[in-house]
Amino acid sequence: MDRTSQSNNEIKILIVDDVEVNLIILEEIIKNMGYQALLAQSVKEALKIIEDSEVLPRVILSDISMPEIDGFMFCSMLKNDPYTKEIPVIFISAMDTASDLSKGFALGAVDYIPKPFDQTEVEMRISTHLKIYTMQRDLEENNRQLNLVVARQMEKFRIEQKNVMTALARLVESKENVSDSHYKNILYNSRILAEGMQLSPKFEDEVTDDFIDTIESSAGLHDIGKLMIPDRILLKNAPLDEEERKIMCTHAELGAKTLMDIYEGVETNDFIDMAIDIAWYHHECWDGSGYPKGLQGNEIPLAARIVKVVDVFDAMIGERRYKKPISLEQTLTYMQENAGSIFDPDIIRVFMRIYRNFKGIAK
To answer: What CATH number is attached to the domain comprising 165?
Structure first.
């Protein structure tokens, strides 16, 4: 048997008619075409056949006038079930009034074969709708494959952009700080703090697993705006004066707008949105005294409030061009004293329980 015959032999066509002679005639035609015929003398039998079959019939030939459940109701049931709605339904009936035909097509039937049957017409109708069915399936599969390729390309593009941003963020960190550990500490510690917050009833709904994964990757872009700050200010080995400090403060808004420009036209995703929020608002304070917008309380995005705690902590205990490390004890005192003013007090409560797991603490 050739491959075409084998393929045809696997195709099942369901015939539903309460008149046995009609089943016999159509069964013979379908077998001569090389297909399997499934026979049912009622809609209940047909539904049982469909339920028990591992492979759905490719086409259903259904009489209209049948006891208990007629062909119109059967067609409606098939089209309302996601599992069977794509199966082409062809009505077979002596009823050929315009209203019958209109009703059948309105319910989702694709064709109509009148009785008595003409073998050539039956064969042509079945062959036509098998080809259409196959073409639709092939088209759907091609579209699915195309969507997968496009999705993979878009994901690759996003990863490449993310990698470029990460490289730039690490560049500015390595320029500004004595060691390049700050960048790594921000990523790791943001995740640790978020995981601790997930266990708190206060944050368990908002801090999901996806949130934790996203903040771990986006937190590193918090100071990306410092790329636009002049080196004479960024690399100054002493505290900044008032004018220099004003310029330095612009890095938050510059960073957010840079990220928005880079990702303009790219489909939005959690990484982009969170990175922009963090870059823009990680210098805002709980009491509204921060910059650049003076947001307060829950107006400040949660991711930015988390990175605020992590960033300040790591900056204080770490060495900078203009300062020596501050002791852990002094740093913790500062964090606690400023809970409710600089920091979200609920986040600080979690922080005080888990800070020992942070990177960057001298052993």
So the answer is: 1.10.3210.10
In a domain, 69, yes or no: yes
pLDDT at residue 201 in the model: 92
| 62 and 164 together in one domain | no
Let me know: does 306 contact 215? Beta carbons within 8 Å. Answer: yes
Q: What is the pTM of this model?
A: 0.61
Crossing angle of helices 345-354 and 181-198, in 10° steps, is 100
Sign of the torsion angle spanned by Cα atoms 51, 53, 56, 61: negative
CA atoms within 13 A on the CB side of 45: 13
DSSP notation for 266-282: SPP-HHHHHHHHHHHHT
The boundaries of the domain holding residue 16 are 3-117
The number of distinct structural domains making up the chain is 2
Taking residues 61-80, what's their average pLDDT? 91
Q: Which pLDDT score is estimated for 4?
A: 42
Residue 331 CA to residue 351 CA, distance in Å, equals 12
Same domain, 78 and 164: no
CB atoms near residue 259 (< 10 Å):
24
Local confidence band at 350 (pLDDT 50, 70, 90 cut-offs): very high
| Residue finishing a domain among 71, 100, 117 | 117
pLDDT of residue 3: 38
Whether the per-residue pLDDT at 100 is higher than 60: the answer is yes
Same-domain status, 17 and 81: yes
Q: CB–CB of 27/40 below 8 Å?
A: no
Q: Which two tokens stand for residue 351?
A: 């922080």
pLDDT digits (tens, 9 = 90+) for 264-295: 766 667 888 999 999 999 999 999 999 999 99
pLDDT value at residue 259 = 87
Order the strands of the 12-16 sheet from edge to edge. 36-40, 12-16, 59-63, 89-93, 111-114
Q: Assess if residue 125 is contained within a domain.
A: no
The pairing of beta strand 89-93 with beta strand 12-16: unpaired
Nearest to 220 by CA among 183, 180, 257, 195: 183
